[in-house]
Amino acid sequence: MLHVNNLTVTRGRRTLLESFKAFFEPGEFVAIVGENGCGKSSLLSELSGANVTTSSDICFHGKPLQDFTSSELASLRAVMQQTPVTPFGFVSAEILEMARNQITESPDKRQQCIQQVARWLEISHLLTRNIQTLSGGERQRVFLAKTVLQILPSPELHSQTLSGRMLLLDEPTSALDLRHQKIVMQTLTRLCQAGLCVLCVSHDINLITPYASRMMVLGEKRCLADAPPAEALTANVLARCFHTQLKLLKNEQQIVFVTH
Amino acid sequence: MSTLTQQPQAYQQFVQARVRERKLRAALITVALMAAMYAGLVSGSYEIQLAQVVSSMFSVQSASDVATQYYIVTELRLPRVLMTATVGAMLAMSGCAMQGLVRNPLADPGLIGIAGGAAAAAAVSMAILPPFIPALAPVWVATWAFGGALMAVWLVVRFASTPGGMSVASLILAGVAINALSGTIIGAVSYVASDDALRQITYWTMGSMAGAQWSVVAVITGAGMLATAGLVACRQALNLLALGESDAAYMGLNVKRYKQTILWLVAFSVGMATALCGIISFVGLVVPHICRSLFGVEHRFLLPACGLMGALLLVVADTLSRSLFPPMEIPIGIVTSAIGAPFFLYLLWQQKGRLGFG
User: Residue range A215-232: average pLDDT?
Assistant: First the structure.
């Protein structure tokens, strides 16, 4: 679905990633991890197609990314940024409605979609609140809901509902408590089962490992490992990525956990 | 589970109540605007009995006193009130659009130098480069003012743009610089200008609605309708831009095109208003702020509400400027600044500490 044939990511004069190659298919839940400043967010930004550079060769649905208009892209992929920008006191529901900007639909259906996503992420009680008075975690859930709503065609999920669509998330759980972390991860898993491809940047390796179908470890200007989490997370890879010694634990379901 | 099933209803009720509330408030403001326009017609240095004037329209002969009143109403006050309302609406809506665009409620078109740029260019055209055909003077000055406004917008946006978006601190600092530059240009022009042009410039830097004639009203109403249609068409874009330029692009907005359109429309509105009525500052700052607290921040409601409220505020200010100390007329720019400057200080006080991060 999304094929990165050759991508070099630079920020200023620094090269963050060199001749990066990857492909992403429907239904995948890909975790992207790596140390601070290694280019995770920049990679997401390149993959979003918002600022495609000339040195990239990325195809989305078989078509070069730079040939898409922003409105074509908006119906196929949604991006959640690390820090939401909220200079004005919008009501949460107004922000969620903006996500449906590209979609022509009846007001009833729009409300059903909003209510459905609000139920998934437990923000129904926040819909009438001013976004500026929400806590960081509440705001993060509202913006995640906004991101999901942008590419959700109908309130009911079937096996192929979201096939061909993509979510790019930049640390969507950084402000959440344990219960809401779990809710978010379970919701994302459910969306992946409906065919969605999720790319999620996170520093919380232990949170994402049980849910991710694939893990990409970035470091040394390239992808150090790209495999299911249990295979990707090795002492060697982690040491090269984070430049420190880390211990690996395995639970009875063979899920790997990283600790100091 | 009960809370989950109740919440959609509670939400629907909230939305309905909000719509009802907004409609009621818009209706109240419209009524107030009508009342203010009526007050604008009858009050001033010459007392008007509007009933007599209206009845005189249907009678062949009337007393000379009523004829004077008729002349004052139809040739002086009616065009003036209409022009004031239009200019108020234009300034308030462009303020609202500018604030949405740069994501800060402190961005007033006057404050960030757009009106200053328009004024400087217009002063140059009035004193140094008069048109070859004197009859074209108003259009000539308006064109220059529009050019000056565009130039100022371009400069301000260039200086304030950073890779991460528009920086508010540099926006306001750029505005300070451009205002200073405009002041210098106006000062230099005044120094070499003829007495006649000088009086015109001085009068005009303080803002005045005295130039209202039906021909001017026709021009400004046309411009106002164009600008209103344009800005209202950008309402959803302004909503998306309020979440940041990159988020707006991710959500499918052609950011570059809408940004340019909005800047052109703001420059056009402010340039036209400044060309015809001089510098009237702070309307674009005060009105959107009041309207946000009454109508919420959604631009679909906020923009038209700003139009109504801006018209109301400026008509009230103009009526005050004519009737406080008759027969003297306080320049309207001084009235709006007297209200707006303390208000700006208050907003600054509220935003203290947050400014640097905007």
Answer: 91
- A18 in any annotated domain: yes
The mean per-residue pLDDT over the stretch B297-317 comes to 94
Closest Cβ–Cβ partner in B240, B249, B298 for A50:
B249
pLDDT tens digits for B250-285? 999 998 889 889 988 998 898 888 888 888 888 998
- Give me the amino acid identity at B273: A
> What ipTM does the predicted assembly reach?
0.92
Which residue has tokens 């300070």? B176
Q: Is B15 on the interface with A (CB under 8 A)?
A: yes
Confidence of residue B200 (pLDDT cuts 50, 70, 90): confident
> For position A174, what pLDDT does the model report?
92
pLDDT at B3: 45
Q: Based on the structure, what is the number of domains in chain A? A: 1
Amino acid residing at A235: A
**Any domain includes A147:** no
Locus of tokens 């499918």: B252
CB A171, CB A203: distance < 8 Å: yes
How far does the CA of residue B172 sit from the closest CA of chain A (Å)? 17
Element (H, E) at A19: strand A14-24
Q: Which residues of A touch B292 (CB under 8 A)?
A: 88-89
Residue A39 domain-assigned? yes
Quote the domain boundaries for residue A70.
2-84+161-259
* Residue range A91-98: mean pLDDT, rounded: 93
What's A255's domain CATH number?
3.40.50.300
Can you say whether residue B36 is alpha, beta or left, with left for phi > 0 and alpha for psi between -120 and 50 degrees?
alpha
Evaluate whether residue A145 is within a structural domain.
Answer: no
> What count of other Cβ atoms lies within 10 Å of the Cβ of residue B186?
24
Distance CA A231, CA A228 (A): 6
User: Could you tell me the sign of the dihedral formed by the alpha carbons of A116, A119, A123, A127, in that order?
Assistant: positive
